[in-house]
Amino acid sequence: MAELLGDKRRFAVEVGDWDGSALRRVDLWVADQWVTCDDNMVFVKQFRFYVARTAAGIRSAEDQTPPFAGLSPAAIHRRLQAAARDGEEEYERFGFFHRWGWGPTTDNVTSRLWRDAIRLVITLEFWREGHLLIHPEHAGTIFVAELPAAEFVGILEEMVTILGDGEGAPVT
Predict the structure, then answer these.
(1) Geometric angle at alpha carbon 159, from 111 and 29, rounded to 5°
(2) What is the pLDDT of residues 82-97, one digit of tens each?
(3) 10 Å Cβ neighbour count for 108?
(4) Strand order in the sheet with 143-148
(5) 86-91, long-range: CB within 8 Å, 24+ apart, which pairs?
(6) Separation in Å, CA 106 to CA 52, 80, 123, 126, 167
(7) Degrees, nearest 5: CA angle 100-106-108
(8) Which of 30, 87, 115, 127 is the most exposed place for a label (fewest CB within 10 A)?
(9) What's the pLDDT tens digit per position in 40-83?
């Protein structure tokens, strides 16, 4: 039985059943967008490790305000993308799924994340041609979600518990 954590309009996770191997279905949503539409099967041991690492990293980060003050989240996302393309590695710290190693399930998007005090901002952009052919309205669109950092970390920590130990047993 699948379990939904969070709010799809901001950030949500649905952890599904085991497939009988080391894989498990995990669906992710950011800003009401189904992120894992291309691949929603995760290798649990690896995925769980990276989700736990993300939660710990966000929990310990006091402030990760991006350097482009006064801009909208979408404009900040575009600036961070341009800086990354130009090889300015200091901006990679604002990466989300790729930076934290969430794997193939999130390879279809470019995402950024920053924390400003208690507020967390996640930006997302679909880039795969196949997705954009099905959803041409997504071309060039930056989806933005904002939520309290504590809520985000709580969702990740609960997901780690539900995912289990990679052998089908819950982590207690």
Answers:
(1) 35
(2) 998 888 888 888 999 9
(3) 17
(4) 109-116, 119-126, 143-148
(5) 91/67
(6) 16, 18, 13, 10, 23
(7) 130
(8) 87
(9) 999 999 999 999 999 999 988 766 787 788 899 999 999 999 99
